[in-house]
Amino acid sequence: MEPGKLLENSELGLRILAGENGLNRKIRNEDVNRPGLALAGFYRNFAHDRLQVFGQGEFAYLLDCGGEVEGRIKDEFFSYEYPALVFTHGNQPPSCFIKKSNETDTPLLQTTLSTHDFILNFNRIITRALAPQTSIHGVLIEVFGLGVLLLGPSGIGKSETALELIERGHRLVADDMVHIRHMGKGELIGESDPMIEHHMELRGIGIVNIKDLFGVGAIRKKVQVDLVVFLEDWKEDKEYDRLGIDEQTMEILDVSIPSITLPLRPGRNIPILVETASMNHRSRRMGFHAARSLSERIHSRISQQITEDAERENPPKKERKKASPKPLMGPV
After folding, report:
1. Domain residue spans of the chain
2. By CB neighbour count within 10 A (0-12 exposed, 13-18 middle, 19+ buried), where does 52 fall?
3. Residues with Cβ < 8 Å from 102, sequence gap 6 or more?
4. Smallest Cα–Cα separation from 172: which of 101, 220, 227?
5. From 25, 158, 220, 222, the catalytic residue
6. Domain 3-129 = CATH 3.40.50.620
7. Residues 119, 32: contact at Cβ < 8 Å?
8. Low-confidence residues in the chain, pLDDT < 70
9. pLDDT score of 91
10. How many helical (H) and strand (E) elements, i.e. helices and strands, does the chain have?
């Protein structure tokens, strides 16, 4: 990401003060650096590859330092190359900073935000920009709060299935091209290409705008990808999962996402099956696994039946009661 892109983001409230020729520098680190120690002359392990943020403390130090210290700071500090320098709280940098920024083509930026708010907004924006990403041909729709990615060959009916789900009250995220980003900790966020956002292609009808037809309640900007559903034509020679004990997964950006395969056949209501799969996936995440629970009950009943049959075939022998010995002499 480039500092010039940060200027285009209204959440940061940035404006350029100097060093415009360096706006094409690359920001390759998600973290920021507060250069207080560097201003005081300590440069060991100095993170100069990060965005340098000057808060109230750094700004106050620059105002209080004398001419000799200011000269040292000017020479030593600007011997490093930075992605950009940012002064928060609307503070005006010293004239020496503006001069050296222009000389070294270092972007010098200013924002009216507090240091805390700026860093929060910057971290959110840069994390998204630097996150690993990929694009997948499919349809992403929110079903019962879960992000369901519909995949399958072209013309299999992904868009038609999504349209029926929208009619049933669910929300479209992306059709045809789904952009997916890995935001860390196994979280995959899917969204639409801005150019085709809210639009859907239906063979025989053409391009439709879901927002215009069904309202803003039928769309969503982005959603976490929780489940992948493969749609394919029914193959007589293929054995499909009928129990659901073993879970399938699909690797996307090195993250394993639960997946299922739904074979298409005349008479099968695919939208209802997708809804059921979503509810079943949510139930599993809460710790309730219907297939495994039933399997355990069946195995428990079989074990109990085997034990009962074994007891009937080999009943336990009754032990005879031993007679108590008679006393040798009667009562005196």
Report:
1. 3-129, 131-285
2. buried
3. 18, 19
4. 220
5. 158
6. no
7. yes
8. 66-67, 316-332
9. 95
10. 10, 14
Question: Would you state the pLDDT for residue 203?
Answer: 87
Mapped onto helix, strand or coil, the DSSP state of residue 328 is: coil
Q: Which helix (H) or strand (E) segment is 189 a member of?
A: strand 188-192
- Let me know if 128 is a catalytic residue: no
pTM, entire model: 0.73
- In the prediction, which pLDDT does 296 show? 82
Quote the Cα angle for 308-313-316, to 5°. 85
pLDDT 10s digits, 138-155: 999 999 999 999 999 988
Q: Which of 44, 242, 317, 322 is catalytic?
A: 242
What's the Cα-to-Cα distance from 72 to each of 38, 39, 67, 75, 83, rounded to whole Å? 11, 9, 9, 5, 21
**DSSP assignment letter at 281:** H
In the three-class reduction of DSSP (H, G, I as helix; E, B as strand; rest coil), residue 265 is classed as coil
What does the pLDDT read at residue 292? 79
Which class in CATH covers the domain with range 131-285?
alpha beta
In 3D space, the residue among 162, 150, 154, 161 whose CA is nearest the CA of residue 227 turns out to be: 150
Single out the catalytic residue among 105, 117, 176, 193: 176
Place of tokens 């030593």: 76
Can 158 be counted among the known catalytic residues? yes
> Rounded CA gap, 129 and 18, in Å?
24
pLDDT at 329: 60
Active site residue 181: no
- 176 carries an active-site annotation: yes
Could you say which of 99, 116, 137, 268 is catalytic? 137
